Each structure stands twice: as structure tokens, then as C-alpha cells.
Request: fold
Amino acid sequence: MSVDKLRGKRADVNISDAPTYPNFGTRSSDHFVIPTGPGQLACLPRRMETVMKPQDQIGFIGLGTMGGPMALNLCRAGQPLMVWNRTPERTAPLREAGAVVAADAGDLFDRCTTVFLMLENAAATDAVLGRGTEAFAHRVAGHCVVSMGTTAADYSFHLSQDITTAGGCFVEAPVSGSRKPAEAGQLVGMLAGPREEIERLRPLLSPICKQLFDCGAVPAALQMKLAVNTFLITMVTGLAEAAHFAARHGLDMDSFADILNAGPMASDVSRVKIDKLCRRDFSRQAGISDVLKNSRLVVEAAKAAGTAHPLMEICAGLYETTEKMGYHAQDMITVIRALEARAGQSQ
Reply:
């Protein structure tokens, strides 16, 4: 049963007589009862009494390179928003834009029933949700948790099961794009989870994503994201190698960029990255450490599925080298530094 179907349900009976709703435990007039283990129940305050209206306050946790502009776009679209970030300074632009800043993650979950997470990794997600602690059930029961970051698909699958067992709903919503598309509200979103919840979330995600694609059940959206990342990472790495080749042959780099931009291989990504390469502008859009993390996720998933992945093995090695050179916070196009270092070693 979806979260929407449970909203507004009220059972004025004793806890012991309350009916069981599949995946969501039982409700009384004042409490929500969920299983927390063999022979164990947790009695939680009743939440989500009505169907969510488009202008109900939603929560957003994770205001980094991508999350900050995504949350700002929600604010600017008029969506009532509560935010929280581990680094408090990053909430300032959101406060100025009209968002409410939560005291902590628990405060946000207490006041929002739909919560977007744009977090760095699985550990950060578990920490925010209180997974493995008593706080987990209290935070996710009666909530729709929308995970927009990139994690291992297997992790997402098991997290979805845990949230459902605790009486909540989980939707994967990873996005394709870097900081500039995030600022422009031009990301591409991939969705997986209960169909009713996906349809409810579409208008909420419209200020963030230019297009949204339903990928099916969890973890299909993350698997799709990793497939898309395989193309993105190998393409940008190939572009860096092409620029390295052109520069070492003394070619005019502006002409090189013009020819690429005029040809059939040009894309929004290639145009931005070739301009950065020509100007040696390594300021961050998609950071080296983030790309290395994603490369490793692709390699791990490929190994688990038994698929060939020679290009991604090479890319992961190059981004690891770039990170070790001290460029972890710079843009992924800085991978050209690893290529230049390798060329210097071969001379």
C-alpha cells in the first residue's frame, strides 16, 4: 500500500485491536505501531494525516555542490521548504531565499513528511536517517524518503526494504548533470519506487529537473544512473586525452575547440568541458573525488553483474591518480593533469 493510501486513515480502536496495513504496521487514533524486530513493536506518534498538498512544506537535506542549487530552485519556485546541512554555513543562501532551517535532522523529519536527500554517500545517508539506531523508525515511519544522491544499487535496495519495514516509503531519484545544470534546473531525473509516489513527486521535482524518467522498481534508477555515468565519465576522459594530444602537437586549441563544437559529437557537456580545458579552468563543477567515487561504483556494479568494463577500469585509475596529486576538489576535467604526468614519466 502506498503512503498516499494511508494518509487520512484513522482507527479509533485500541492498539491491540488495530488492523495491520501491509508494510506500514498498525494505526490507532493517536499512534502508529510498527514492527522493529521479532516480537518487538514501536509505538510512534501519528503522522501524515492528510493527503499532501502541492504547497505543503517539504524537507531537503544535503546542500553541497548539487544539493544547494537544487534546493534554491525549489525555493524560487515557491515551494515551502525546510533544509538542514551538516555544515551550517551552507544553509545561509537558503534562509535568505525563504527556507526554514531545521535545528537538526531529527527536527526536519518531525516537521516534514516528504524529505529529499542529496548526500555524498551511504554513510552520510545512514547517519541522517539514524539507521541502526532507535531514531530510524521514528524518522522514516509515515514519511516518503527521496534519495537523489548516487550510492551502490545494492545499498539502495536494502535501504528501501528497511524503510518500508519501518512504515515509510522510499523513492530513488538520482540525477544526471553537474553544478551548472543544477543551477539552471536542467537536470535529468531517474525515478524508481511506488508508482503512486512517483506521480505525486513529479510536480515537486519539476523546478529541479527538465525531464523525469520512470525506471521501475528500486534499484533500477541507480542502475540506470551508473549506466549513464559510464558514458559520461569515459566521454569526458576521452575529451581530456584528445585535448592533451592536440596541445602536445602544438595545435591551436581554439581551433580544436571550434572544430569539436561544430561537429556531430558536440554536446552541452563537451562544449563546457572543452572551454574549460582551453582556458585551463579547473574550477569545480563535478569534482574529482565525486567522479572517482562514481567510477568505483560502476566498476563494482560491473564486476557483480559480470560485465566487461575495461574503459571504466582505466578511468578509475586516472581519477585516482588525479586525486592523489592533490586535485580532489577540482573539476573532473583536471584528469588531464594525470595524463600530462604520465606523458612526462614516459619522456
Remarks:
- Confidence is low (pLDDT under 50) at residues 1-52.
- The first helix runs from residue 3 to 6.
